[in-house]
TrEMBL record:
Homodimer. GO terms for molecular function: 4 iron, 4 sulfur cluster binding; electron transfer activity; metal ion binding. GO terms for biological process: aerobic electron transport chain. This is High-potential iron-sulfur protein. It comes from the Bacteria. Belongs to the high-potential iron-sulfur protein (HiPIP) family. Residues 29-97 form the High potential iron-sulfur proteins family profile domain. Keywords: 4Fe-4S, Electron transport, Iron, Iron-sulfur, Metal-binding, Transport. Gene3D superfamilies: High potential iron-sulphur protein. It comes from Paraglaciecola psychrophila 170. Specific class of high-redox-potential 4Fe-4S ferredoxins. Functions in anaerobic electron transport in most purple and in some other photosynthetic bacteria and in at least one genus (Paracoccus) of halophilic, denitrifying bacteria.
Length: 97
């Protein structure tokens, strides 16, 4: 019979829980889809993948989330979806500071 002491059991359990948690976060981050131009919210907010307004684009909007420098990033206006950093919508508001 294989004996597992309490310390080894806790190491294995802790590693498994951390692995499952981080794996789930990574899957959710990768599962986000790009906002389609025919999405009802995108239509209502006049979202475009490339802004025609100088100095106003998703990458400098207060609603953008995620890491700077990525082409597609999550947006608070479009839950569960990502927007193009070069995009724009009528909810655009310049990021403070």
């Amino acid at each position: 019979m294989n004996n597992v002491n309490r310390r080894d059991f806790l190491k294995i359990s802790g590693s498994s829980i951390i692995g499952l948690t981080l794996g789930g976060v990574a899957l959710r981050a990768n599962a986000q889809e790009q906002v389609a131009l025919d999405d009802p919210t995108a239509i209502a907010l006049k979202y475009v993948h490339e802004s025609k307004i100088e100095g106003a684009h998703c990458s400098n909007c207060q609603y953008i989330q995620g890491e700077d420098g990525k082409e597609w990033r999550p947006c608070g206006i479009f839950p569960g979806k990502v927007v193009n950093a070069k995009g724009w919508c009528s909810a655009w508001m310049k990021k403070a500071g």
